[in-house]
Write a structure and sequence with these properties.
This is ATP synthase subunit c. One of its GO terms (molecular function) is proton-transporting ATP synthase activity, rotational mechanism. It comes from Marinithermofilum abyssi. With 73 residues, the chain is mainly alpha-helical. The chain is 86% helix and 0% strand. It has two helices and no strands. It has helices at 2-34, 39-68. The termini are close together.
Length: 73
Amino acid sequence: MSILAGGIMIGLAALAAGVGNGLLFSRYLEGITRQPEARGTLFGQAMITLGLVEALPIISIAFGILVLFKIIG
């Protein structure tokens, strides 16, 4: 059962990261097309948000690996 739980955690973390990054950069490109002069500001904000979006899947993958190898749970 822990193999299934670990696999689900890792798979959903990868899915969430893909969806989050897709939404982030689609909004970033939309912002650039609306206001090209704000490109530098938007880039900095997009990179900070990218770090926040990627933090949760990385933590989830780590817990998934721990569950997968029965270190916890």
